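Job type: complex structure
Entries:
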Amino acid sequence: MFKRSPSLVQQVKAHLKRRIANAEFESGRIPPESDLADELGVSRNTIRDALSQLETEGVIIRRQGAGTFINQAGLMVKTRLEEIVPYEQMIRDHGFSPTVQLVDVREEKVDPDLVSELNVAADEKLLVVQKLFLADEKPVIFSRTFVPPRIITLDFTSDDLHGPIYEFVPNYCQQEFAYYVTEIVPVVAPAWLVDRLALPPAVTALISFEEVGFNQAGEPIIKAYSYFRSDLLRLRLIRRNVG
Amino acid sequence: MFKRSPSLVQQVKAHLKRRIANAEFESGRIPPESDLADELGVSRNTIRDALSQLETEGVIIRRQGAGTFINQAGLMVKTRLEEIVPYEQMIRDHGFSPTVQLVDVREEKVDPDLVSELNVAADEKLLVVQKLFLADEKPVIFSRTFVPPRIITLDFTSDDLHGPIYEFVPNYCQQEFAYYVTEIVPVVAPAWLVDRLALPPAVTALISFEEVGFNQAGEPIIKAYSYFRSDLLRLRLIRRNVG
DNA sequence: CAGTGGTCTAGACCACGGG
DNA sequence: CCGTGGTCTAGACCACTGG
């Protein structure tokens, strides 16, 4: 039934998501784990791993003794903040059509604040990339990304920076992102942002993400500031009790 | 070595967290999974479950073929937004000493916006609880919580509302929270909030959480609005790539 | 009581990293 | 190459829900 790669768990997850999207479980109830295991020809543990992930994503709810059910409320969450998602995808998830404008690419002396955060020398220069993202032609995100040039191992042109930084770094820097630490900050839009994002007078407060991206060795490799029209892109999160 | 409850995974997790906090792994390296399994007398799967959770929490990093390591950067994250944490605890996690003021408890006709969100009748009344949280005597969070009285099955006084709502609902309503859907919204503090939170002129933008709490059956049972001095309580998040 | 999800085990094999 | 974490299996028993 399934191949060996990607992992069985991922395939089972995708399979169940598809069946849920196709409304194949009208009752809202998902078959018992043991039935799924038999049907898909994998062990119950594999099914359970897939279901656990779907539960974390808010797609289903499991109740011991009762069963596994589709979670309607989870559909409100368009973007899971715990996941690194390219902004183009985030815009698409909200039902808009994305456009990217590469506003500006330049080198700049490192800001003192970034010296310790990015672990660079005080006189080093940083590559600064500024982008504007539009949803159905309307500006919704402005981002400014700082990359220490020393990590870039291959030649590139500004065209190569048009796509998500999550693709640039693996392709041109021979390292992968492991995770981001993101701080969520409220800002009153300064004049230049009102201008950039063409904000209507009613919208003055924005969400900003201040993020540091780390590679697999736990070293900081990029810093980014992003500003969101959160009236258009709803930033939602599922929160749970944990042990 | 371990008892059967709480689960072995939880005990292993707590055990490892303690050893990490005690700096017992000077090298920053955590022993191989098989060693831990032998040492603690549990199966490797149990160890792996515990390590997976610690990785999700940002405590460790695992690298296939290389080993498992303590993640220094994870220490920046005081509050994991994906977890439901009582605000008193959040304040404590930031190194402050918390105080709670029960500002106000009253019944109020339901706001039209909440009718559909809380699935109540348009003429129903809601219990409204307003609280102010202080960190080292400084106001940092203001919250307003709406509860449909019909879910409250036991008698209570306003004293019972002094603690976290996460304790009130299980104790007085015979149901448990399963999860919250939280929307993160930036706001410019209106005059009454500037007053309540005693905001200095420099702080005008706040983070607001607009949350709906669901029970295990997936029914909405409470709605809450919270306003944070995010200059004092840093809202940070670990974001990852997922499949 | 039967059926469901929750926990745990022992063992196998794979994929990757570093010496 | 060896040692590490990553994936998967088959089976056992427990805890809870609901009729």
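Summary: Chain B has a mean pLDDT of 92. Residues 8-76 of chain B form a domain with the Arc Repressor Mutant, subunit A fold (CATH 1.10.10.10).
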